[in-house]
Amino acid sequence: MSSKPRYAVFGNPVQHSKSPQIHQEFAKQENVAIDYDRIYAEIGGFAEAAAAFFAEGGQGANVTVPFKLDAFNFVDEHSERALAAGAVNTIILLGNGKFRGDNSDGVGMVNDIIQARGVPVAGKRILLIGAGGAVRGVIPVLQGHQSAEIVITNRTHAKAEEVAGRFGIRAIAMNELPENHFDIIINGTSGGLNGELPEIAPAVFGACALAYDMVYGKDSEPFLKFAAESGARQTADGLGMLVGQAAFSYQLWRGFEPDIKPVFEYMKDL
Ligand code: ATR
């Protein structure tokens, strides 16, 4: 067995994951050698796969779709962020052998928006589209940044209302959204994976300084193209969020804070 510290990302599917490359770049920055694998788990088989990984010397894990709730149930204790989001994307093996669950998605996204995109969150009116795990994961972190307003909208309005109630934010139906109002509009739906767009009127983007999609690459294109055509001044896909969440996970495991920017540039050109 390798003596290098061992990490992995669990998912289904997982072959497409860029996390191994990103974490290897962070390890170079820290000047250490690590193993970072992709581990495919069967639906319903996450706990078994994770237990086997840690029994074989794993020290930390990332968890992606669709296992963030399974990971939440797997760990012994939760960070406040993970509790608020109801989802775990980072598992940390503690010195006492217990597992701690955290969530680095929100930190990754908000750091990307503020630092890399140069768009402050404080004082801004933010619209979140979608009401699944992706959106729930970022709400508590956005709430910690003194935004002026956070509104959630979703194809199934009842789900938006449920999430809004849980976090004390406002839900507005997609066809009732105010025009020329939101500064930052974030798409957290999975519709782009099928080339589909949320049904939002173009004028909703009238005052939009940044339209952001949590997914990256071609899956983000339909939404970002529509946003730009509707007046959004800047658009960004979720590659910065991906690198940002990875960096925060790495820091949680190793206490080393990676420099995100060169890794983002490297991944962008890959
Ligand atoms: P995740 O955990 O990745 O967020 P999820 O819990 O399945 O995934 O949530 C997917 C989100 O994308 C939901 O908000 C879903 O809307 P519904 O609640 O109405 O299902 C949204 N979504 C998926 N496809 C969509 C589409 N074509 N148009 C608009 N919203 C869509």
Written description of the protein model:
This protein is α/β, with parallel strands linked by helices and 270 residues long. The protein is globular, with a radius of gyration of 18 Å. The protein has 10 helices and 12 strands. Helix 8 links the parallel strand 11 (210-213) and strand 12. Helix 5 (105-116) crosses helix 9 (239-254). 38% of the residues lie in helices and 19% in strands. The protein has helices at 19-30, 46-55, 68-74, 80-85, 105-116, 133-143, 157-167, 221-229, 239-254, 260-268; strands at 6-11, 35-40, 58-63, 77-78, 90-93, 99-102, 125-129, 149-153, 170-171, 184-187, 210-213, 235-236. The protein folds into 2 domains: 6-102 and 240-269, Leucine Dehydrogenase, chain A, domain 1 (Rossmann fold), CATH 3.40.50.10860; 106-236, 3-Layer(aba) Sandwich (Rossmann fold), CATH 3.40.50. The protein has a 6-stranded mixed sheet with strand order 2-1-3-5-6-4, with helices on both faces. Strands 9-8-7-10-11-12 form a 6-stranded parallel sheet, with helices on both faces. Bound molecules: 2'-monophosphoadenosine-5'-diphosphate. 2'-monophosphoadenosine-5'-diphosphate binds at residues 65, 130-134, 154-156, 159, 188-191, 196, 198.
Task: Write the SSE topology.
Elements: E1 6-11, H1 19-30, E2 35-40, H2 46-55, E3 58-63, H3 68-74, E4 77-78, H4 80-85, E5 90-93, E6 99-102, H5 105-116, E7 125-129, H6 133-143, E8 149-153, H7 157-167, E9 170-171, E10 184-187, E11 210-213, H8 221-229, E12 235-236, H9 239-254, H10 260-268
Helix pairs in contact: 1-9, 5-6, 5-9, 9-10
Residues 65, 130-134, 154-156, 159, 188-191, 196, 198 line the site of 2'-monophosphoadenosine-5'-diphosphate (ATR).
